[in-house]
Design a protein that fits this description.
The complex is a heterodimer of chains A (143) and B (1288). Chain A is an alpha+beta fold and 143 residues long. Chain A has one domain: Beta-Lactamase. Chain A has 4 helices and 5 strands, in the order E-E-H-H-E-E-E-H-H. Chain A has a 5-stranded antiparallel beta sheet with strand order 2-1-5-4-3, with helices on both faces. Chain B is α+β, with helices and mostly antiparallel strands and 1288 residues long. Among the domains of chain B are: 226 residues, Rossmann fold (3-Layer(aba) Sandwich); 151 residues, Sandwich (Immunoglobulin-like), CATH 2.60.40; 158 residues, Immunoglobulin-like (Sandwich), CATH 2.60.40; 168 residues, Sandwich (Immunoglobulin-like); 175 residues, Immunoglobulins (Immunoglobulin-like, Sandwich). In chain B, 34% of the residues lie in helices and 26% in strands. In chain B, strands 22, 24, 26, 28, 33, 36, 37 and 38 form an 8-stranded antiparallel beta sheet that branches. In chain B, strands 10, 13, 15, 17, 19, 20 and 21 form a 7-stranded mixed beta sheet that branches. In chain B, strands 12, 23, 25, 27, 29 and 30 form a 6-stranded mixed beta sheet that branches. In chain B, a hairpin with a 6-residue loop joins strand 31 and strand 32. In chain B, helix 4 packs across helix 20 and helix 17 runs antiparallel to helix 18. Chain B is elongated. The N and C termini of chain B lie far apart (149 Å). The chains are: A alpha+beta (143), B alpha+beta (1288). Chain B: It comes from Flemingia macrophylla.
Chain lengths: 143, 1288
């Protein structure tokens, strides 16, 4: 199950962060997402690893913590997508697919002429779309 | 890098050293205690040797030299596993102390963000970590599974005072006193001993000691005995400059460090030094060497070689079914496994790492097979360390450490201590290789169940993240927060605060609101729990404006904040209170110097628009300046000119927005301005210096200011700000006396508990910088600085009753009321109005006249002159001597007419001068601003077209549409204004308006004729005469109302402005005519929305040119019907064409008659339509004949009606006789007549439109450049039907 998805701007400012749990763990997830940025930075700035996948937007598993797995995705505009999931055996292809759809949703959201770049995404349509994607992710990995 | 120089290397060289077990008699201790030291402490400084240079030969034949060496001394009673509980307590003590210390250190300074990575570990990490880590390692010592803590030698010390010293020596090494390690067989009890006789020189000469020493030598052998004389300094205590003991006595001992070892003179110290050095180089090292060699031989005999290995393997396998306890089988000191381990450890201690490693490897597999996990882990650990010390195979080293660590962890709480130690070593190993990130993860793994322990480890982990390259600041922050949580759980509040504060450096300035709030909130809470409410409040304030949090969280934050504030006792006064948010960009300061504002909305109008309005009224700038300069030199210094001027007794208003970012409502009370008043300018100067000094503590500055408000009055506002609300607050300060008034900021009270300040100036620098020129900072404050001058008169003005809504055309009489509450008179009043089309100034006498009756045409009225002065002059001067003073207001009539629909802003400015010349301000202006919404009412349009029956007669069509929603109007009167034109009805009014009113949405058309006024025909040549006005009443005569006279004020004035407004190009055209429609609301239907229904409405339509089809009008005059006997001859008919030139110049006219037969009938209509000027509607002409006929009908003509209906097909050709083309000149404004003749050949009806009229005006005649005006034209002939009948 996906616990949390987040969009983080290129200045590492949170643009959108949404948890999908019942529990009141927003703070924890904020921390997790925030920390994962360190790993994203490391991945991006480390020339050794970025050689063959220079143009790869999918950053893969960022780090496993306790009972979560954190995946990352970096767009060309240096916007980061973070995915926190409780599924311990997730197929990379699933995550990739998820991020691709998420990216499309994000692009649509920021293409709104009323969206101010660098400001939080408040679009309700985006939120609905994201929750649909998140739900469908749960199905595909379960089935 | 040399591993030995790394922190880990140092630590290993310090910690993994031979242990000397110390056994001493009480009298020895007693002697030593004279120096404030125990015996062990006395010896300890001399246990490490930096240059002993001892040759060592272990298993290999090749000797090597040891330069540095160290011994560890332990009392026999301490050679045991440390008590865990005691150790824990001790650690806790250390942590608490460190917490207190760090806390008091870091209380004042805010943690800086150490983004720059130059700082090394020691600068960043708190120093007590090192000590703590050492303690943690020490707690795990004296375990039975490893041998390096096993005592290598036993040092037995007996004092010379003791009775029977030889026996004492033997007693000391008594089995029941020995540590359990030796007793339970974990280590070899046959430990080598060294006998030491301690002699206290204060007890007497050394005779007895040397005697005993000789006995000892005999008893125990020469080599193993030594004599130590201490306390040689008999009388004076010695002060050691650099006390070697001071380093080792860390506890807070009662004696100061200088007093330590006060009886030990330099000889004693040297003696101790020699003793220890001999002990190590002559006893310990050779002992160990020997043991290594012996063990090595045994090991190689039993375990080395292929045969032994096979045997071992077989033997082990057989043992496999044995006890599978957690710890594996127990090994005696004489078991081969223990021996190998001892061999390894000894080799390690003597730094023969190759030998140690080979033995560790050997034993490690054995332990693994035996499932002796703890021992296995211990060996793995040592292997890792050995690899590290050999500086080879980093991977191996780390693998071994990890292996050991996980194995220890698997043992559960049993191996926890060892796991910690192993982890710490591992971390040090990683740190030595700059692998801080990995080190951090190990720290994370060390965190056990003990909360305090894990808190410390997490904190250390966070520092590792900080030190890693590139530094991972976010993880640093995260782990600090985690660690802070743990600290909090075990009541180490101070540590918790410290970690959170460091974490702040990461989160501050980011937009991660949740995390920031969490950190600030907890810091605030913890500070509060420590009773440091001021700091707590400071942190809590950061999170007050948490609009992103849920409502409950917001309530929690605010509640806690207020609780803390309350606990503090006194009311807080803070400068950075975020609740509510002040929108500083909405800040507006309104003060009145020479400009005064009569209505609130006048304030909001831009100064520029006022300036342009008042331009003509105000004394010219240069003139004013000369006046000013004269006064300035006397009254005010130059500096104060820059500041704003306000008048004593008149309020300075400051308005700005308060915004509540929360979802919960917050009560705000006591919102006031914080001002400073000073009586003279000198005082200001001194105060300025003062204030610049005080700027550090703004709150104090405010506090000082808030008290002295005797010289000014401030308004106070209380309100409740609902969730998400924004409220505009208006505050005022009223100075009472002359001087300087400065507005510093605003002060308010949140929930009645905390007082917030907001300084206006400090938040404005950008704004002022943008304006440029204002270079010095000093000038920024000028905005809020006012020079208060003495009270001068101020007029108050209002217009009543000005409607807020009005229908277009609504005409009203209003009254301007001016009051002067002060006792000083004002003079020289002037007034200007922005929209004269809407508002004009009446005459004083109008004030008493009744409206609208005063507009009625009086029967005996004389043609009064138009108010030419008002039309020409836009500034109205009140009559000389008009002065306003005291109770009686000045009333002045105004006329208002809603000219066009829309929202209209009316601006008025009234200028007046002070009678008192000594004042700084000599004149003032009163500005009034009103908004009027004008709704559409009647839409009136006119069309004129020349009558085809008579020259100089026109048909006027009026279309009226009622555009209101509900109102119905009575169309009362139509007046025409134009040179020698008068209007008359075509139909009786009853037929036009059967219901006498025009309902909402109703449209109606009616027709009038416009005729040349006969009254003024005599004056035709006089072009300068005034326009003639004629009126038509559109209501039945029965009503007793009289006709309104549009020739008197204000209708004439409004008409003038309408003309100006609607003016297009026909200026000076005598043929132009204006229409004024006067209507009234129908009385029966009053819209409740209008409190004051309009009485009279006027609609003006101007500049309808009569000569719209050209300056020439003509008419064919001839018989309509005639009888002729065609059998006799064809018929010749004479016609007359009347021409009229309505232009001001002579026109040249040519008439061409056309004979072509086909050019008749149908086409002509179209031609006419084409030649008429485009502003006439096509098809308009088709109707006119019918109407004309009706109007000019004669009994004779009516009989012929059916004839008219003949179809055009009956038209038969006719020919024009006479000239085919006629030229003539028609003088200006004159008639001409041309005879025409046609011949018809058969009876029938003929359309005599078969001619073309060309006209031309001299183009240079009047020299006017109007392009739109025609200079020549060509017109088709009008239809004129002639019926010729066969006479009988």
């Amino acid at each position: 199950m996906i616990v949390c998805v987040a969009v983080v701007g290129h200045q590492n400012n949170p643009l959108y962060i949404q948890s999908f749990t019942e529990a009141d763990d927003a703070l924890k997830l904020h921390h997790i997402v925030h920390c994962s940025l360190d790993v994203v930075d490391e991945r991006v700035n480390n020339p050794k690893k970025s050689g063959p996948m220079l143009n790869e937007t999918f950053l893969g598993l960022l780090y496993p913590i306790e009972n979560y797995k954190v995946y990352g995705y970096l767009t060309n505009t240096k916007v980061k997508f973070i995915l926190v999931t409780t599924d311990l055996d997730v197929k990379d292809a699933d995550v990739r697919n998820f991020f691709r759809r998420f990216h499309a949703a994000y692009v649509d959201a920021v293409s709104n002429p009323f969206h101010v770049p660098g400001k939080k995404i408040t679009s309700r349509t985006f939120a609905e779309r994201v929750s649909t994607i998140v739900k469908s992710f749960g199905f595909s990995s379960a089935g | 890098m040399d591993p030995a120089t790394t922190p880990l290397g140092q630590m290993l060289l310090d910690e993994i050293t031979p242990v000397v077990m110390l056994l001493s008699t009480p009298s020895v201790e007693q002697s030593c205690l004279k120096n404030g030291l125990s015996f062990l402490q006395t010896l300890r400084p001399f246990c490490s040797f930096n240059n002993i240079d001892v040759p060592v030969r272990t298993a290999s034949d090749q000797p090597y030299r040891l330069h540095k060496f160290k011994l560890r001394l332990f009392y026999a009673s301490d050679v045991r596993k440390p008590d865990l509980m005691v150790a824990k307590e001790q650690l806790k003590q250390v942590i608490t102390e460190a917490g207190d210390k760090m806390f008091s250190d870091s209380r004042s300074d805010v943690p800086k963000i150490n983004h720059e990575l130059s700082s090394s570990e020691h600068q960043n990490t708190p120093s007590w970590f090192q000590f703590l880590n050492k303690e943690l390692v020490r707690v795990a010592s004296f375990s039975d599974h490893e041998a390096f803590d096993h005592p290598v030698i036993c040092l037995l010390a007996v004092s010379s005072k003791d009775e029977q010293p030889i026996n004492r020596f033997i007693d000391l090494f008594n089995a029941n006193k020995l540590p359990s390690l030796l007793n339970d067989g974990a280590m070899d009890p046959k430990i080598s001993k060294h006998y030491l006789l301690v002699h206290d020189n204060q007890d007497g000469p050394t005779d007895r000691a040397s005697k005993i020493f000789t006995e000892m030598r005999n008893a125990f052998g020469t080599i193993d005995c030594s004599l130590l004389c201490i306390n040689s300094s008999l009388d004076a205590p010695i002060k050691h400059q650099d006390n070697p003991w001071a380093l080792y006595i860390t506890d807070a001992s009662p004696t100061p460090s200088q007093d330590l070892a006060c009886f030990l003179n330099i000889d004693d110290i040297n003696e101790i030094k020699n003793l220890m050095q001999d002990l190590s180089s002559k006893h310990i090292i050779p002992n160990m060497e020997q043991k290594i060699r012996v063990l090595n031989q045994q090991v190689s005999a039993t375990r080395k070689g292929f045969k032994n290995q096979i045997k071992n393997l077989w033997w082990r396998k057989g043992k496999e079914d044995g006890a599978d306890s957690l710890n594996g089988p127990t090994y005696n000191f004489n078991s081969i496994e223990s021996q190998i381990r001892v061999l390894g450890d000894y080799a390690f201690m003597l730094r023969d790492y190759e030998l140690a490693l080979s033995n560790y490897r050997l034993i490690s597999t054995d332990y693994k097979i035996d499932k002796a996990w703890k021992r296995y882990a211990g060996v793995q650990e040592m292997m890792g360390l050995t690899y590290f010390m050999l500086d080879q195979s980093r991977k191996e080293a780390e693998y071994c450490m990890e292996n050991a660590f996980t194995t220890y962890l698997k043992l559960g709480s049993f191996g926890q201590l060892n796991a910690t130690r192993c982890g710490l070593w591992w971390i040090e190993m990683l740190k030595a290789r700059d692998e801080y990130k990995e080190a951090a993860t190990v720290y994370f793994r060390i965190c056990g169940e003990d909360i305090l322990h894990s808190a410390v480890m997490l904190e250390q982990a966070s520092y590792c993240y900080l030190l890693s390259k590139p530094s991972m600041l976010r993880k640093y922050g995260f782990h600090l927060v985690l660690s802070g949580e743990q600290y909090k759980k075990c009541d180490q509040i101070k540590h918790a605060i410290r970690t959170y504060k460091s974490a702040l450096s990461v989160f501050r300035g980011t937009t991660w609101g949740y995390i920031n709030d969490h950190v600030h909130f907890h810091i605030g809470q913890w500070y509060a729990s420590l009773g440091m409410y001021d700091v707590a409040v400071k942190h809590m304030m950061e999170i007050l404006a948490c609009s992103h949090q849920s409502k409950t969280t917001q309530e929690l934050f605010l509640g806690d904040f207020l609780q803390i504030v309350e606990k503090n006792g006194r009311t807080f006064e803070v400068t950075k209170l975020q609740l509510p948010v002040i929108n500083i960009s909405s800040l507006k300061v309104v003060f009145e110097d020479y400009r005064t504002f009569g209505t609130p909305s006048a304030v909001n109008t831009k100064e520029v628009s006022w300036r342009s309005l008042e331009e003509e009224m105000l004394p010219s700038f240069s003139a004013a300046k000369t006046n000013w300069l004269e006064l300035q030199s006397k009254l005010i210094s130059k500096k104060d000119i820059q500041s704003n001027v306000c008048v004593a007794g008149e309020a300075v208003n400051v308005s700005f927005e308060f915004k509540n970012p929360l979802l919960i409502s917050i009560p705000i009370s006591g919102v006031t301005l914080v001002c400073k008043y000073s009586a003279s300018t000198d005082e200001v100067k001194s105060n300025e210096n003062e204030s610049s000094l005080e700027k550090d503590d703004e709150a104090d500055l405010f506090r000082n200011r808030s008290n002295d408000n005797s010289s000014f009055l401030v308004s106070e506002v209380d309100f409740l700000l609902g969730g998400g609300e924004t409220t505009m607050i208006q505050l005022s300060v009223t100075p009472r006396a002359e001087g300087i008034l400065e507005i510093h900021g605003v002060k308010w009270k949140l929930s009645g508990k905390i007082v917030g300040f907001h300084n206006f100036e400090l938040s404005l620098p950008n704004r002022n910088a943008g304006k440029g020129r204002r270079k010095t900072k000093h000038l920024q404050n000028e905005k809020f600085k006012f020079m208060v001058i003495k009270s001068i008169p101020k007029l108050q003005g209002s217009i009543h009753p000005l409607p807020e809504k009005a229908y277009a055309g609504d005409l009203r009489q209003l009254v301007l009321e001016l009051r002067n509450p002060s006792e000083f008179p004002v003079k020289n009043l002037k007034m200007k109005i922005s929209h004269p089309r809407f508002l004009i100034i009446g005459k004083q006498e109008n004030i008493r006249s009744e409206f609208p009756a005063c507009l009625r045409k009086k029967t005996d009225s004389v043609q009064c002159d138009a108010d030419s002065n008002i039309m020409s002059d836009t500034v109205f001067l009140f009559p000389e001597g008009t002065s306003v003073q005291g109770e009686t207001p000045l009333l002045w009539p105004l006329w208002f007419r809603a000219a066009v629909p829309g929202d209209i802003s009316l601006y008025m400015s009234i200028y007046y001068e002070m009678v008192d010349v000594s004042s700084v301000i000599r004149y003032r202006t009163l500005r009034l601003h009103y908004n009027v919404q004008v709704l559409p009412s009647l839409d009136v349009s006119f069309q004129t077209s020349p009558s085809q029956l008579r020259l100089q007669e026109f048909l006027v069509r009026m279309d009226i549409v009622n555009k209101t929603n509900s109102e119905s109007f009575q169309v009362y009167q139509l007046s025409s204004v134009g040179h020698h034109w008068e209007i008359s009805l075509l139909q009786p009014p009853d037929t036009i308006f059967p219901s006498q009113s025009l309902m909402a949405g109703q449209a109606i058309s009616c027709f009038f004729t416009l005729k040349k006024s006969r009254k003024f025909s005599a004056l035709e040549d006089n072009v300068s005469t005034l326009p003639v006005r004629s009126d038509v009443r559109l209501v039945p005569q029965s009503s007793d109302d009289l006709v309104y006279d549009i020739n008197i004020a204000p209708l004439i004035n409004f008409h003038h402005y309408e003309r100006l407004q609607q003016e297009v190009s026909y200026k000076g055209d005598f043929n132009a005519v204006d229409f004024v429609l006067i209507s009234r609301p129908f009385k029966s239907n009053n819209d409740p929305g209008f409190s004051d229904p309009p009485h009279l409405m006027s609609h003006h339509a101007c500049h309808f040119s009569i000569a719209s089809t050209g300056p020439i009008s003509w008419l064919i005059d001839g018989p309509q019907t005639l009888h002729h006997d065609f059998s006799a001859s064809f018929c010749e008919i004479s016609l007359k064409m009347h021409l009229y030139n309505s232009s001001g110049a002579t026109a040249f006219v040519r008439i061409d008659t056309l004979d072509s037969a086909g050019n008749g009938g149908h086409n002509s209509n179209i031609n006419v339509a084409q030649t008429t000027t485009p502003d006439n509607q096509a098809g308009w002409h088709d109707i006119t004949p019918a109407n004309n006929e009706l109007k000019v009908t004669s009994p004779k003509f009516l009989e012929n009606q059916p004839v008219k209906a003949l179809s055009l097909e009956s038209v038969s050709p006719y020919i024009w006789s006479g000239s085919s083309s006629t030229h003539l000149h028609v003088e200006a404004m004159s008639l001409a007549e041309i005879p025409l003749q046609i011949c018809v050949f058969s009876p029938g009806t003929y359309d005599l439109s078969n001619y073309v009229l060309n006209w031309r005006l001299p183009s240079n005649g009047l020299g006017d450049s109007d392009e739109t005006r025609q200079h020549s034209g060509k017109c088709q002939g009008y239809k004129h039907y002639l019926t010729v009948l066969q006479s009988t």
